[in-house]
What does this fold into?
Amino acid sequence: MKKPVKGVIFVCVENAGRSQMAEAFFNKMAKTARASSAGTRQTSMVNPLVVEVMGELGIDISEAKPKLLTMEMLEEADRVITMGCAIGDVCPSDLVENAKSWGIEDPAGKPIMEVRLIRDKIKKKVRALVDKIETSV
It folds into this structure.
């Protein structure tokens, strides 16, 4: 029998965009598990365009703060999802045996139309993950 998934962590480089969106979508959709997010490099704020495009869907992440990834966070998570790693960045999928990479483009510096496309791709992937987790319980 499979162990039920209770916690998922979404990881990207700065925890300023992709992983914040994934965490917010997951926590809105999931009934049996919770998500958190973190980054491999410190930054001070969530990308304002990410906050805006999430707000368009009624999800307020304006109070979200980027968090730096720790080994403890990785050890506590049942699932680790990396959003995509830039060349030369520390990639958590290199640190964790069972990490899954979604390979999603970073919204940093992109126009709002592209950020919306990235958001929608993340939403679709999170929906599939939630469905898989909750049907395996």
Observations:
- The chain has one domain: 8-135.
